[in-house]
Amino acid sequence: MVNLNGLSAFPITPSNRDGEVDAGALRALLEPLIAAKVDSIGLLGSTGSYPYFSRDERRRAVQAAVAMAGKTPILVGVGALRTDDAVRLAQDARDAGAAAGLLAAVSYTPLTDDEVFEHFQTVVRESGLPICIYDNPGTTHFRFTPALVGRLSQLDGIIAVKSPALDASTLAGHIAELRAIVPSGFSLGYSADWNCTEALLAGGETWYSVLAGVFPRICFEIVRAAASGDAARARQLDARLEPVWHLLKTFSSLRVAYAIANLKGICAAEPPRPILPLPPDAQKKVGEVLAAMDIG
Amino acid sequence: MVNLNGLSAFPITPSNRDGEVDAGALRALLEPLIAAKVDSIGLLGSTGSYPYFSRDERRRAVQAAVAMAGKTPILVGVGALRTDDAVRLAQDARDAGAAAGLLAAVSYTPLTDDEVFEHFQTVVRESGLPICIYDNPGTTHFRFTPALVGRLSQLDGIIAVKSPALDASTLAGHIAELRAIVPSGFSLGYSADWNCTEALLAGGETWYSVLAGVFPRICFEIVRAAASGDAARARQLDARLEPVWHLLKTFSSLRVAYAIANLKGICAAEPPRPILPLPPDAQKKVGEVLAAMDIG
């Protein structure tokens, strides 16, 4: 069984504005993540703009990543608006050698809990791909209750949840509530980078990290400090990243991740339209923050 | 120039659960709307589940509707997550003979006003299809400010806005705010059936109606009463529909519209998965409400 605990790095998926994936740039982006021995790579997450890419482009990206990943598990976003499309994407990811799928409750018509349950049940049953529940209300506008996570965690093949660390003060309670209803071994992890050090210290097992998609080493140090019980060290490293957290919160994680990858010279990627690159003044601000820090 | 004022009826798009459109059932659903001389038909709106259908199925639905519509203008939902997809859908609708396109700010990554402006500008420029702005924050989670509607209304080919009538008490102010910044002849219309009588009485020019997709005649009577200044008559008819408004608010307009179309024997449609038909007890409730009324 794949183990998603630790640091999961979520890179952008380099492409042009029409959604054609640049596999060479993707390899250049993944190489330092693999070298840094991140615990997994979250390919085609929200930062990887998964719903904006066609099935063919998504398959090409997974194949390119798996071919170079070695022992690093590739977790692949397989979400889609329609259940049958999500099934096909999960089958593609499985066939390409992905370790697990990350499945969000992508919605247009607001979904009920029963609809989301059936959606997940169908995808995991029809694909056989281990699935991490992707709770991302900021994009899907669906919020998983602990009760629904509990129901889903009973299904064979649903192995983990990635929850949003929306409020540092409620993380310990959220973890305790989930832990009480999910099976032993079910992995509880968090995204929203600026609250994830606290999520790890509160008992979260995985940091699903946007920053680790471009700067894996300092994120890895935080994960190791938290795992060894050195809360002071973890918080000290996290505090150094405060200017970056401010950028992510101000300009959106996705758009800042594109700007950083381009500023580092790894690629010249544009988000698929209608998403636009950051305006020049915001890109300049990102550059200034990076130049003033040493987090390479 | 197409005129969208009056009553625009929004039917479901009959299909099976895998999103294959039943063109015969669609024709059976449209025939009474055309016979009732609704002012336009809103095909593939949110009630028509547009984002859940493939490009081919959407084109088939538009072709079937245009072929039988005669002089009734067909307004077609052309929204998509990606700008290039929305362009292609608008071109398809134009080529099939649609009178106008209904374009929503479909989003996954939350969009900025500038991104939405460029998205709309590209679609209207590349398709030449007259466009009605579709402000539907309940599904897209993007909210059009009056300022953004004003900017868009200056573009050639953007002719109307469909706003959500979220609060009857603020409609007059909303209409006045928009009227002050849009060009003369730009059409201001509303959806959310239960507040649309008040929207018409406050000066709204179009009722984009889910109920008119199955019961056009009583909706048409309300529109005529409002247009002739007979507010008492319009409100009296609206009050008769209170049990239906309660159903739409309780079980969601889309799912109730499927249930009504099926109960009337017009089709045996299922929403595309993951959306599920109403559970049996809710369908029973819908049947009871309809049986107790005479709104045929």
Identify the notable features of this structure and list them briefly.
13 helices; about 300 residues; alpha/beta; eight-stranded parallel barrel; TIM Barrel; homodimer
Structure description:
2 copies of one chain form a homodimer. Chain A has a single domain, classed as Alpha-Beta Barrel (TIM Barrel). In chain A, β2, α2 and β3 form a beta-alpha-beta unit. The first copy, chain A, contains 13 helices and 8 strands. Chain A starts with 5 loop residues before the first strand and ends with a helix. With 296 residues, the first copy, chain A, is an alpha/beta fold. Chains A and B meet through α4 and α5 of A and α4 and α5 of B.
Radius of gyration of chain A: 18 Å
Main sheet properties of chain A: 8 strands, parallel, barrel
Low-confidence stretches of chain A: none
- Please indicate the percent range of residues of chain A in DSSP E strands (runs of 2 or more): 5-15%
CATH superfamily of chain A: Aldolase class I
The CATH topology name of chain A reads: TIM Barrel
Shape summary of chain A: globular
**Number of discrete domains of chain A:** 1
The assigned structural class of chain A equals alpha/beta
In spatial order, strands of the major sheet of chain A run 1-2-3-4-5-6-7-8
> How would you describe the oligomerization state of the chains in this entry?
homodimer
Number of helices of chain A: 13
Fraction of residues of chain A in helices? 40-55%
- Average per-residue pLDDT of chain A, rounded, comes to 97
Q: CATH class of chain A, anyone? A: Alpha Beta
